[in-house]
Specification:
CATH class of the largest domain in chain B: Mainly Beta
CATH architecture of the largest domain in chain B: Beta Barrel
Order of helices and strands of chain A: HHEHEHHHHH
Shape of chain B: flat
Number of helices of chain A: 8
Protein name (chain B): Exosome complex component RRP40
Subcellular location (chain B): Cytoplasm; Nucleus, Nucleolus
Strand order of the largest sheet of chain B: 9-10-11-13-12
GO molecular function (chain B): RNA binding
Number of strands of chain A: 2
Structural class of chain A: mainly alpha
Keywords (chain B): Acetylation, Cytoplasm, Exosome, Isopeptide bond, Nucleus, RNA-binding, rRNA processing, Ubl conjugation
Main location (chain B): cytoplasm
Number of domains of chain B: 3
Largest interface: A-B, 34 and 44 residues
Oligomer: heterodimer
Structural class of chain B: alpha+beta
Helix content of chain A: 55-70%
């Protein structure tokens, strides 16, 4: 245990000594100006960044509908055309329907993941409204509910 | 060697430049103290950096021309200068979309011939939706449209068929049938220019599909073999035809 500590200490000392040595002997360029110069001009070997080239895959007159969609997509990235409206038009399910279904869906799936106690509470809430409850249930209900609370021992 | 006197870059735009010409940049790009003073006084310093495109190299006083061709300039987005030159041999460049032919399968990697000095490598995981168990169905002799992710003179070029977000966006194996042929690189750039007349006129003729690779390869597919061959012949010939000759040829075809 102590040995490991010693090793780390010696390591730290060695590192500090190394850093000192390096910082004294380290050669560094005293030319921050050069960096500024370099940032003005970028060298580029690709024509793609110089000229506005279109995407290489094309299809005409409906030969390949997927590629025609792709063409519109890729070429409008540069020009920012009104693609958002097209997306809304093409949706199969409208937003309202989606919201309605999602609302119902959340409830049903949420019930699945409740713990047992909470599920019972839910069921009780549902069954409270029903009058046709068996007596057995009514008997067990208060006892189960009573179990949850701390019962003082009767003297 | 006596140093050549450089000419102002903007004066030579659109003219022929030869290797060895020195182009002086306007004052606001200069890094001398005079340049800085000018920058401060004239408030119109361009924002962003100057792009020095293919055919040009940065040298102390300005830009050095390394290829012969026409000098082009784009003032937008910080400005860009490049040399529009003609060549048939392709040199792999990072980010270029090219058509490659699969020549060999070596374990997990495919070797593709892209027309450069070395075959490019393509990993089988570089396709959309590919996992170790779900391998793409690529055979020797297939055509693949992909982009370079590593391409310099020191290393073997590497290609991928997905973009940075993991989607294939049109890249991958090119389908069955169709015709692959080679043209010069200048024609490809002309065809890929926005609103290219040749492509617009051709699109009026027949329904067809076209894939253009920056390595000079074009793949065409139309409904019948005859239509495919017609399109191939037009694309090959339109490099040396004037616009009128092209329109005459297309008029004959659409008349037939």
């Amino acid at each position: 245990f102590m040995q490991r500590g010693l090793d780390s200490q010696t390591k730290k000392q060695l590192e500090e000594e190394e850093k000192k040595i390096i910082s004294e002997e380290h050669w560094y360029l005293d030319v921050p100006d050069l960096k500024e110069k370099e940032s003005c001009i970028i060298e580029e070997r690709s024509f793609l960044r110089c000229e506005d080239l279109v995407y290489g895959r094309m299809s005409f007159k409906g030969f390949n509908p997927e590629i025609e969609k792709l063409m519109i997509q890729m070429n409008s990235k540069c020009k920012e055309e009104e693609i958002e409206e097209d997306d809304k038009m093409e949706a199969d399910v409208s937003d309202e329907e989606m919201a309605r279904r999602y609302e119902a869906l959340v409830g049903t799936i949420g019930k699945k993941f409740l713990r047992k106690r909470d599920q019972r509470v839910l069921k009780d809430d549902d069954e409270d409204e029903d009058d046709e409850v068996e007596e057995g249930n009514s008997k067990t209900r208060p006892s189960k509910r009573a179990k949850k609370m701390f019962l003082k021992p009767q003297d | 060697m006596a140093a050549e006197r450089g000419a102002a870059a903007e004066a030579l735009v659109g003219q022929v430049v030869l290797p060895g010409d020195l182009l002086l940049l306007p004052a606001h790009y200069d890094e001398d103290a005079e340049g800085e003073r000018l920058r401060l006084s004239a408030g119109a310093a361009p924002q962003g950096r100057l792009l020095c495109g293919p055919g040009l190299r940065r040298s102390g006083a300005g830009l050095l021309v390394t290829k012969c061709g026409l000098l082009r300039h784009r003032p937008a987005g910080g400005g860009a200068f490049w040399v529009d030159s003609q060549q048939k041999r392709y040199v792999p460049v990072k980010g270029d979309h090219v058509i490659g032919i699969v020549t060999a399968k070596a374990g997990d990697v495919f070797r593709l011939d892209v027309g450069g000095s070395e075959p490019a490598s393509l990993s089988y995981l570089a396709f959309e939706g590919a996992t170790k168990r779900n391998r793409p169905n690529v055979q020797v002799g297939d055509l693949i449209y992909g982009q370079f992710v590593v391409a310099n003179k020191d290393m073997e070029p590497e290609m991928v068929c997905i973009d940075s977000s993991g989607k294939s966006s049109g890249m991958g194996i090119i389908g069955q049938d169709g015709f692959l042929f080679k043209v010069s690189l200048g024609l490809i750039r002309k065809l890929l220019a926005p609103k290219c007349e040749i492509i617009q006129e051709l699109s009026q003729l027949y329904p067809f599909e076209l894939v253009l690779g920056m390595n000079g390869r074009i793949w065409v597919k139309a409904k019948t073999v005859q239509q495919t061959l017609i399109i191939v012949n037009i694309l090959e010939a339109c490099e040396y035809m004037t616009a009128e000759q092209r329109k005459q040829a297309l008029a004959k075809l659409s008349g037939n």
